[in-house]
Amino acid sequence: MNFVGSIPSPESGVWDLGPVPVRAYALCILLGIVVGVWLGNKRWVQRGGAAGFVTDAAIWVVPFGIVGARLYHVATDFPTYFGANGLGLIDALKIWQGGLGIWGAVAGGALGAWIACRRAGVLLPPLADAVAPGIAIAQGIGRWGNWFNQELFGRPTDVPWALQIDLVNRPVGFEQFETFHPTFLYESIWVFLVALFVIWADRRFQLGHGRVFALYVLAYCVGRLFFELVRIDTATLIFGVRINVFTSVLVGLAALIGFVISARLHPGREPSVYRESRDGGNVLQTDSDSQVDPTINGDTGIDGSEPEKRN
What we know:
- This protein has helices at 24-46, 53-76, 78-82, 89-92, 102-120, 124-142, 144-149, 183-205, 211-230, 243-265, and strands at residues 14-17, 20-23, 163-164, 179-180, 237-238, 241-242.
- The protein is mostly helical.
- The chain has one domain (14-265).
- The chain has a two-stranded antiparallel sheet. Strands 3-4 form a two-stranded antiparallel ribbon. A two-stranded antiparallel sheet has the order 5-6.
- Helix 1 (24-46) packs across helix 2 (53-76).
- The longest helix is centred in the N-terminal third of the chain and has 24 residues, at 53-76.
């Protein structure tokens, strides 16, 4: 047994604070959400939106995203939970044990974002563009939860950065191997690079109308396709190929087509992130605790007019 140059796995992913178990997997997800929302807020204000809206939208996005992520995981690994000798419904609900599908999170989160945007009179595409890099960073942070759980690793390897996996966590047929490809690390690094790339592309080309989000999805799919070909965890197969390989190809193509169509139909960015009312003005929804600052776009209001001076 030679672990020289390999990455050790944590001995435990759970810490007990008295009677309360604190799970590293959940902490990684929560930290990712916090960082993603923070970055999303900054980018939203830069695009002309009201400060704090991304935080408000997260109240809808996060729960819908988590539910969607779990549903996708269970649906694409159905035999594990509901097949012969499956774990059953109770285990299907144990989200803290791992098992969140990114595509379910995107679909569920998009539904939550649509609801939040409809309530606030906000356009969905500019919101998606604002939060796209934050989503990528949140993914990168959340992937470290897989490290604590010793899950979703790749094929056996002896490269210097190989990941040590305890015998109890090795898949059937791989018990004799001790180190594996750390696909969680590969994906974490990849999505951090994706975040930097889409931020650069957004600034360089003034992307709008959902193209930043489409670019993020496309870039992520390229990496995810590779990671899926390396992973050895149990997965639903179609014609002998992991289902997420097909998903990555189809979603990536859809993102590419959406990017091209958007660029042709709507070059540049939206003049406003808000929906227009019937009289041609912008729909703004505020409450007593949150008022839109007319100077949020710099020295002018959201519509480009000079702010009203008050004595």
